[in-house]
From TrEMBL:
One of its GO terms (biological process) is aerobic electron transport chain. The keyword Ribosomal protein does not apply. The keyword Protease does not apply. GO terms for cellular component: cytochrome complex; plasma membrane. The chain crosses the membrane at residues 41-63, 84-105, 117-141, 153-173, 216-235, 256-275, 305-327, 339-358, 364-387, 399-420. Its EC number is 1.10.3.-. One of its GO terms (molecular function) is metal ion binding. The lineage of its organism: Bacteria, Bacillati, Actinomycetota, Rubrobacteria, Rubrobacterales. Coiled coil: none annotated. This is Cytochrome ubiquinol oxidase subunit I. Keywords: Membrane, Oxidoreductase, Transmembrane, Transmembrane helix.
Amino acid sequence: MPAEIVLKLPLAVLHFIAQVDLSDALSEVGGARVITGGTMLIHMFFAQIFVGFAIAAPVLQAWGARTGSPRMDRLAHSMVRFNVLTFSTGATFAVLFLVLLVGLYPQVTASLFTNFFYLIVVAMISMVLALWGMYTYYYKWHRYAVLKKGKHIALGFSMGLFIWIWMLIMTGIDTYMVSGGPGTPQLTAENIASLGISLQAMFNPMFVEMTLHRTIANLSWPAFALAAWAAVMYVRAKNEADRSFYDWSTSVGLTWGVGFLMLQPIIGFFLVYSMKLSVPENPVDEAAAGGAYGRLTEGATSGLLYTNLVLVVILFVLSAVAMYLGAERHPEQASRVPIRFFGLIAAVAGLYSISPFADFPTYYFRYIALLVMIVATLGAFITYMRGRLRFKYGSPGGLYRATLIALGVVAAVVALNMGFMKSNSRVPFTVYNQPDYTIEVGPPPTGFGS
């Protein structure tokens, strides 16, 4: 009798699964948009770090070979090791995201894959080559890193180059969906025959600015994540040499993170302006009249834009605090006074930019305040970098390490919120101003492949 129960149990489970209404199940947890978007955000968390580390690791190794610093080599190895260990996690959520797209949005998925067929093939080839470069770079580290240093570094750069090409193509498809591809043909099944149409859609008004924004973002926030990781690893270090290495690594992550962070608001301004240029001249309905720009700046997404501005200001303030606290490593601590001065200016300007008074007498004062914040941070950054040449690593303060961890967390939230904000700006369309591709509020649409 127990054997019969065991045999019948799988059949009962399968029968139960067959009765589940997936559309109702999705509604219970927020709908298809929440499930699909959440999956993509988890993937992007790992993907952005992967891209940043893949580009930065060979640069650090080459820099270390030029300066004779073994710390650079060790840090580059740690970054590639992280990519090797976490790639499968990010890839799993990427595959899950693709499954959800095909199942819940079959029309737009089939159309995009058809329209960008050749470019997607190039992207997949680039991904394979990037993975080949990564695994060869990592597993031949001890064999090549000494006797064949140049060849080993070249493998690392191939990893960074091909993953950047993959990011480039994905950015083109993404910005096409946000802008609606002004001046390019609508999505049709016949477009598979034309590489020119795919390239025309890829090079839409937002493409260049978004590519710059993503490239620098993938070098900035992963650098803050690196600093936070090193701050945690410092506590676990067993000897003085490891403590010195992790303390030094926090400084590397901080300087790279702040250096690229200062470029982001400027590029972000031009990115939003390019979004304004992509507003459709012939909107299909009232919802499309303002384009993604209207929804981002004045519509339902404007609250997310302000939230992101607040988070960016917090990033700048925490960066100044971290540089001030980190400058205590200087034997004379001479650089702390100017860093504190510049940091206070950056904090006041940043807080003013997010206050209700920033639009008085004109809204341009908000941009002026942000520019003052960037310039003041640059002053603190230059002072910190000049003093860094004389730093003695090995005993960072607890408040400094806590600030770095907070920086890593806030930077991750900013990166994910930007992705959510950008994608949400095209609602109710999946491809802006194309009425055949909208957010489905009911069951998944029919007509897959038609």
